[in-house]
From TrEMBL:
InterPro entries per record: MFS_trans_sf, POT_fam
Main location: membrane
Keywords, ordered alphabetically: Membrane, Transmembrane, Transmembrane helix
CC terms in the record's Gene Ontology section: membrane
Residue spans crossing the bilayer: 14-36, 48-69, 89-112
Compartment(s) of residence: Membrane
Protein name (Swiss-Prot/TrEMBL): MFS transporter
Annotated source species: Xanthomarina gelatinilytica
Amino acid sequence: LSGGSADENGMVPFAYLFIMYVVISIGELFMSPVGLSKITDLSPQRIVAFMMGIWFLSSAYAFQIVGFISKQLAVESTDVNVGGLQTLAIYTDGFGLIAKYALGAGLVVLIFSPLMKKLMGNVH
């Protein structure tokens, strides 16, 4: 999306970065309380605290996966100064692939949501 508005040096406007940080932060603010609430509702009373710990542990594993992906997308610039135009195509393709995987995962969740609702019982 932002790759199309890059200038001749391969630099994209700062507004894209700012807007994406805002969107991701708002999404995280919505997801965390809802997830913890569902864990409280769906877990047996004696293991609620343990399941909340699993929730935060899964976040830690997600951060590890993100670190691995970012290392794979990193551009080696040992001796030569790599400009924005050279890296623009690499990052645009990389983030496009991440977006495709995210959309695929979202579709899988949508497909299995009736089964998850059935397993949840009367918890809304």
